[in-house]
Automatic annotation (TrEMBL):
Gene3D superfamilies (alphabetical): 2.30.42.10, Trypsin-like serine proteases
A Pfam family of this chain: PDZ_2
PANTHER family, sorted: PEPTIDASE S12, PROTEASE DO-LIKE 8, CHLOROPLASTIC
Protein name: Serine protease
Domain of life: Bacteria
Ribonucleoprotein is among the record's keywords: no
Record field: transmembrane: 21-41
Length: 402
């Protein structure tokens, strides 16, 4: 059982009451004193009795370089965009469609993308875009940043393998052309800026930003949709947002130079920030050929290639006579008459494993290596025939335009 001492409780109440009175008096005095100091502080500072406090500087803070022009703050990104945005165009794919009754045909917009003006000469302006943007078009129209009415464009050349195309328009209304950078000097982590027309001309010249995620990715290309990789494309990876309609538009560096042509992205549920652009150094070589020859001048050796991995392993030894250590390569399915391969002595069922001492694992790698060469170049081919390694020298021929 507990108990309660009333006399003791009364003493405690008196003590608490006294302490509270003292505390309240001290608090009121402190507040009044503080207010007096604040009121007199400016006079004391001007009189020199109190030194003026210096503003503290934060440590370990990195400033972003900005410049002021005409009362506006302009970042490096804004400068880069201002340098190039007027060279970005909309590319509209127009195709003929029959009317509902089938009595007439009319031109309708089938799709659209982006492009960038890279050259102006002899009254003509040239635009680079993606092949898949203009593929199947009956007519291609180009929408300039400085003109609301689209211009009709001429397709100078297109290349499905690298997904590039060059268009020509009247240059009378073109005032600016884009500057190409050097994609071989790119570094992971540096700024990347994409400009294009995502989801159509309603959002024309939309700007998105990010970084270079990788400077050297390889993407498989299946041209004939047979499930076999026909070519391996070198691309730049970026996390700058690239959406449908951005295709063919420029990827810029911080100086506003074009370092790539936006081409594709990985669009899967839960995947973000995986966009890809064709490096501008490779683009330059392709578009020069398209303007000069209307097609890409590629070499060829004149064989029908098949990946070794697509052939039953039982045939590796029984039909091809390969040693067990050979697990990849390109099988010669056929040799064209009067071709460089025939002149070099290649035969059906030979298995190519190296070009110029570089290992070749499949036909996509073989094409990629060859397409970096020119007709007339000499290369060395290492191949197996009946279990024996052989070497042949071959002079590359010129591939006929498709």
């Amino acid at each position: 059982m507990g108990f309660y001492d009333e006399e003791y409780a009364g003493i405690q109440k008196k003590r608490k009451s006294g302490r509270a009175s003292v505390f309240l008096s001290a608090l009121i005095g402190a507040v009044i004193g503080g207010m007096l100091v604040l009121m007199l502080l400016p006079s004391l500072v001007r009189s020199g009795y109190v030194p003026e406090a210096k503003q503290a500087q934060p440590k370990n803070v990195t400033s972003v370089p900005v410049s002021t022009s005409g009362g506006q703050t302009t970042s490096n990104v804004t400068k880069a965009v201002n340098k190039t945005e007027n060279t970005v165009v909309g590319v509209i794919n127009m195709q003929q469609h029959q009317s509902f009754a089938g009595m007439s045909t009319q031109m309708e917009e089938q799709g659209n993308g982006s492009g960038v003006i890279f050259r102006k000469t002899n009254g003509k302006a040239y635009i680079v875009t993606n092949n898949h943007v203009i593929e199947g078009a009956s007519e291609v129209q180009v929408s300039l940043a400085t003109n609301k009415k689209p211009l009709t464009a001429k397709i100078i050349g297109a290349d499905p393998i690298t997904d590039l195309a060059v268009l020509e328009i009247d240059g009378g209304q073109v005032k600016e052309v884009a500057e190409f950078g050097d994609s071989s000097k790119l570094q992971v982590g540096e700024s990347a800026i994409a400009i294009g027309n995502p989801l159509g001309m309603e959002f024309s010249r939309t700007v998105t930003g990010g970084i270079i995620s990788s400077t050297d990715r390889t993407m498989p290309v299946d041209l004939d949709k047979d499930g076999q990789t026909d070519y391996e494309m070198n691309v730049i990876q970026t996390d700058a947002a690239i959406n449908p309609g951005n295709s063919g538009g420029p990827l810029l560096n911080a100086e506003g130079q074009v370092i790539g042509i936006n081409s594709l992205k990985i669009a899967q549920t839960g995947v973000e920030g995986l966009g890809f652009a064709i490096p501008i150094n490779e683009v330059s070589r392709i578009i020069d050929d398209l303007i000069r020859y209307h097609s890409v001048q590629r070499p060829y050796i004149g064989i029908g290639p098949v990946d070794l991995q697509r052939i039953s392993p039982d045939e590796w030894k029984n039909t091809l006579g390969l040693p067990e250590k050979v697990q990849s390569g390109v099988v010669v399915r056929n040799v064209e008459n009067v071709s460089p391969a025939q002149k070099a002595g290649l035969q059906m069922y030979d298995v190519i494993v190296k070009l110029d001492n570089q290992e070749i694992e499949n036909s996509a790698q073989l094409r990629k290596y060859l397409f970096e060469k020119r007709a007339g170049d000499n290369i060395e081919i290492s191949y197996y025939r009946d279990g024996k390694l052989k070497i042949a020298k071959i002079t590359l021929g010129k591939q006929e335009a498709q």
